[in-house]
Amino acid sequence: MTTRVSRGRVLVVEDEAYVRDSLVEILRARRFEASASASVDDALELVARAPVDVVLSDLKLPKRDGLAFVRRMQSVAPDVPVLILTGHGTVASAVECLKAGATDYILKPVEPDALELALERALAGRALRREVRYLRSAVAGGSEAVIGESAPWKRALTMVAAAAPVDSGVLLTGESGTGKELLARRLHALSGRAAGPFVKVNCAAVPLEMWESEFFGHRKGSFTGATSDRDGRFQLADHGTLLLDEVGAMPALGQAKLLRAIQDSEFERLGDEQATRVDVRVVASTNSDLDADVQQGRFRADLFYRLNVVRIVVPPLRERPEDVALLARHFAAEIATRLGRPAPELAPVTLARLAAYPWPGNVRELRNVIERAMILDPADGLESLDLVPAGAPGLPAASAAPADRELNLRESLNRLERELLLEAQRRAGGVRKDAARLLGIDPRNLAYYLHKHDLGGESHEE
């Protein structure tokens, strides 16, 4: 049986029973979740116990009227829009209600289509305000364009385009800095949810004690320090896409709650007595080996199968060397615009040096190198500056190569990569964490390189 996704939770506040019942019936027929109350005090109690998305209130009510209700809602739930419904409307009362914080003022008798349109406007306005708050609070990242002509990159883009129109789970895997978030945003932009929000959460950065509040939100007073209502990432992503970055770092308890939210399209916000329904597409990304984490019991198998319907491997930059020059020119032009300078020409010798470097930090490292060079090099060109800081691993010597030296770029890079791994392990005394630090890579990525070059061997962990 197919479950219809609710369009929103509406609380009807009306003292006349037949009008109240009629409004509830109309709303439910149009896929709204509708509940009802006969007085302001009862309505405020319901709002305190269970979440609502919008309130439809009569202006004339016993004891306290709709205007008093609007003012009270501004202090207890300012994010919830209140629509005033009245059969005795005047311009003066309409102005007073709107000044008090009402979202709309509707005259009785109201046509069902007009009521539906008014509710849609109120819900859309609430969703827009939420997204604006989220975007203002988010840390702005780099603006990487979807650039590349290499076969591995084009394969990834083809898979993104194929997966975008459907809501199946997508798991983006790859090393740090390869562009997993970039492809997740492209997946969203090509989907039917493009008009909805794209919300990202870094699972590795959420403290365990704040995990549930971060993902599902909380009500004011639900725990010490909860001084106001808060929407979680699932609510913010309603009718859009939620990217779970570094999903492998999610705690075990969080994995169980996440699985339920994905399966049932609902969750319970801290302090609420009723579940909140959402319509969210979940996309996950990781630079860890989730298959191994499942085998070793660190990640739930049932959640893994939910997320891993379509797996897209994002290639490291060393596997797409023909894209280095394209990306470097793009970053140079982008950074020049931000710095208010003309875009520099990248000399062939500069591009050759960039292409020869193995880029352990991938596209993110390339962008940082270009930006550092443009900030520190007073000239327009970049050929006179060391693009990789002194002591950084992987930069080939500047001396001319002997005439009989092997010039196969891929084989040369593989040899250089192996030599660097051996030297880093020697200097670190076999401590992998220290070796990864010397190489400038994440310790979790070191295992990949050691396996690639058959250098597993003995190691010490500290």
Plain-language structure description:
- The chain has helices at 17-29, 40-49, 66-76, 91-100, 112-137, 151-163, 180-189, 211-216, 233-236, 252-264, 290-295, 301-307, 324-339, 348-356, 362-376, 409-427, 432-439, 443-452, and strands at 9-13, 33-37, 54-58, 82-86, 104-107, 170-173, 198-202, 241-245, 266-267, 276-277, 281-286, 310-313.
- The protein is built from 18 helices and twelve strands.
- A hairpin with an 8-residue loop joins strand 9 (266-267) and strand 10 (276-277).
- The two termini are 53 Å apart.
- The protein has four domains: 9-127, Rossmann fold; 151-315, P-loop containing nucleotide triphosphate hydrolases (Rossmann fold, 3-Layer(aba) Sandwich), CATH 3.40.50.300; 318-376, Helicase, Ruva Protein, domain 3 (Orthogonal Bundle), CATH 1.10.8; 409-452.
- By secondary structure, the protein is α/β, with parallel strands linked by helices.
- The protein is elongated and about 85 Å long.
Which features would summarize this protein structure in a list?
462 residues; alpha/beta; Rossmann fold; Helicase, Ruva Protein, domain 3; 4 domains; 5-stranded parallel β-sheet; 45% helix; 11% strand; elongated
What is the topological layout?
Elements: E1 9-13, H1 17-29, E2 33-37, H2 40-49, E3 54-58, H3 66-76, E4 82-86, H4 91-100, E5 104-107, H5 112-137, H6 151-163, E6 170-173, H7 180-189, E7 198-202, H8 211-216, H9 233-236, E8 241-245, H10 252-264, E9 266-267, E10 276-277, E11 281-286, H11 290-295, H12 301-307, E12 310-313, H13 324-339, H14 348-356, H15 362-376, H16 409-427, H17 432-439, H18 443-452
Parallel strand pairs: 1-2, 1-3, 3-4, 4-5, 6-11, 6-12, 7-8, 8-11
Antiparallel strand pairs: 9-10
